[in-house]
Amino acid sequence: MTRSQKHTDESERMTPKFLFTTAIVAGTIPIILMFLTNDMKVEAQSPEIDAFNVYETKSMTLGDNIKNFVILIPNEAHESQNIGDSTSEQRHISQPYIPWHSTVPKGTAIVWFNGDVDHDRKITLTRQDSQSDSTSGSTNLYFDSGTFAYNTATKPIVMNDTGSYYYSESDVNNEDTNFVMNGTINVIDQPSSGSNAVVNDTAGLPGTNLDTIGTLMVPTEDLATYTSDLEDRGFSILSTHNFDDIRSEDQQTLMVWGASSGTNSLENIASQLNEITPTLPYS
Fold first, then answer.
1. Collapsing DSSP states into helix, strand and coil, what is residue 11?
2. What is the domain extent for residue 148?
3. pTM for the structure as a whole
4. What would the mean pLDDT of 122-134 be, rounded to a whole number?
5. Which terminus of the chain has fewer CB atoms gathered within 10 Å of its CB, N or C?
């Protein structure tokens, strides 16, 4: 047998093995890539803005790439948060604000959106780590929204000063006159991640320039409808969490959404929410 014939015979015997091995490798690569992709998404998804975490901890921490933040005042937010009080069972969720406690980077613009049906609301924001000066008449009042109606938002307040802030509204419940709606904001000085920063570290959506974050509460049975509506308006649904309604034990869903101020300004976002919330069955 010549050397060339021997080489040909060996090649023919190796071909099926080579093809089989190649097929296994080719079939394995997409699976590996799938798991790697899923792992990257999990690692990129920040638990601080995950809807489950927001529901359980009543708090949210934003990355330095977020410029705008919409805090939701949910329906029946004025009902007492004190367990055992007669009106506490009228709530949908055990937070007067969603999120109740926030940590945001310096320079974040914040608005409060009033989803408390047929109730006017007011935000009084004070700085907690500064002293009032009684001699000059100055106080630690940082922002006063004035009264704003259901289905409207406050004017934005840009948090340019680091520190701890407390916001509140009293005289909101006729039956529990001691109940005060309140929340906190912690403003921190985070190092910038650059002008090309994306929301990867905050939302797990690589390559998406989301810089506005907010929440919305909807009935779980209508989740698909409102998801579609929000996405049609340029919102991205970052995460959702289903929970039992305190009031009726029906399922509600807490949604964390994101948007880009480049295509959806903060004013326009408030206008979009203004069109959505009246269609909720809480009205």
1. helix
2. 47-279
3. 0.76
4. 76
5. N
